[in-house]
Predict the structure.
Amino acid sequence: MGGYIVGWLLEPLSHDFMVRALLVSSLVAAVCGLLSCFMTLKGWALMGDAVSHAVMPGVVIAYALNLPFALGAFVFGVGSVAVIGFVKQMTRIKEDTVIGLVFTGFFALGLVLVSKIRSNIDLTHILFGNVLGISDSDIQQTVLISAAVLVLLMVFRRDLILFCFDPTHARSIGINTGVLYYLLLSVLSLAAVAGLQTVGIILVVAMLVTPGATAHLLTDRFDRMVWIAVVSAMLSSLVGIYWSYWMDASTAGCIVLTQTGLFLLSFLFAPRHGVLAQQRR
Amino acid sequence: MEAVHAKPGPIERISVRNLSVDYHGIVALHDVSLQVQASSLCGLVGMNGAGKSTLFKALMGFVRPSCGSIVIDGLPLRQARRSQAVAYVPQMESVDWNFPVNVGNVVMMGRYGGMNLLRIPRPRDHRAVRKSLERVDLWSLRDRQIGELSGGQRKRAFLARALAQGASVLLLDEPFAGVDIRTEKLMIQLFEQFRAEGRTLLISTHDFSHVRGFCDQVVLINKTVMAYGDTSEVFTEENLARTFSTIPPHDLALPVEDEVWLGEA
Ligand SMILES: Nc1ncnc2c1ncn2[C@@H]1O[C@H](COP(=O)(O)OP(=O)(O)OP(=O)(O)O)[C@@H](O)[C@H]1O
Ligand SMILES: [Mg+2]
């Protein structure tokens, strides 16, 4: 039995692509897990969905012009939110409507570009991720992006916590909340493009909210929330990749499904904020 | 107690000149001018919609005035905020009460403006937090998640955060709304201590006995300043009647709310 499990764990590691996939996706999961705490607390799930879809044309253009895809993603991610803000300010249309219409517009532009621009991009890889076939240059960029996001979030974490909790107070003590808004947004665009590597555009929003939601049910302290989110995100990536290997199922699907499973567990069994604990009261 | 500290001359802590604020063309404040000195407990009185909260927001620079100027502690607003000269407790906190922060964390946020970029608390920040929590009688609840406090305790927690800031000007928008008598007494004592320390407090309230009880100065507003000065001179029946009549006494030549016209019909 023990030997069976060890074999189950070790056999995939004999493939180079599996080792790379496991390492890259753990890193990406850690970064997205950290960011997901801020996203869930700020109520930016829809914004995360919007930005992750809106980076699509940027990624396509960057690939076509042989530029780093992070650059394209960044420009279009931040750009889309600027457009959202502008349209909201100039009209009477509600914010969620504006977000919905802007990000689908950007996404559609991306689809058209993929189909017209001659390049070696595979649409399914962008949409559903391709972590088992990730290239060296993509790994390099992902590592750089992840490092940048980690450093920014760690350095500004207290300001960002305050910004998420009480922006009015942040302003009243002289903190520039506009800068924090764009900082969080930039970090979101970067993390979205990193997450896109492992699970693709469609599911990346799960990486950006599910671990944070899982963790929020388990603790009332921010630092613990971060640890739980990061660990649950990394665990989901590892389990998901193994699972997809042995079942020959969609990698992105398996990773996100594992995350959803962990959320479900915490939803049911969280000691204080889970449904069962609340029933018992 | 307070008499020991003589007023240190007329230092102007809050100085507002010809301030007007409108929300999308609807006037909330018109041509407001007032000066409040150091070591002063100044009441702000007016009916619902008179513009009290708007005045506080203007003093914080949260609403853009259509004209006029504001100086706090001799500084323009942005600098006043940066140098922690002014602390503000809004009428209602619009925060997420499920947020994973405890009472101590929240009060520590009052100290962020004076810390370095990483906001790593120093010993004196911890001391200030402890002292503020003790002053509002919440030290024993410092580890509670913020949403696990009662309404009155929440108000005290946010007051403690303003205290921790150590500002010389405190702007408190209806601090007594929804607190019990014991807390009210505690807060009044605290405010009188602050005045004795040379700070300036601007406090909006709907309770006239507060104004008579502990405010040395009072501002009566109804979209504009109807009267301001020493409570003993200004807080008269006549001035109150003028302030609380629905129609501002001099024509503002600006759109007036519907209910005013209903009253006339
Ligand atoms: N965000 C806003 N947008 C539009 N109008 C506003 C806004 N905030 C306040 N007003 C209007 O400005 C006027 C002044 O409001 P303000 O909140 O300053 O009154 P207040 O004196 O604080 O009243 P209360 O005693 O009820 O707290 C009111 O007529 C109100 O309807
Ligand atoms: Mg008000």
Observations:
- The domain at 22-200 of chain A is CATH 1.10.3470.10 (ABC transporter involved in vitamin B12 uptake, BtuC).
- The mean pLDDT of chain A is 92.
- Residues 177-218 of chain A form the longest helix (42 residues).
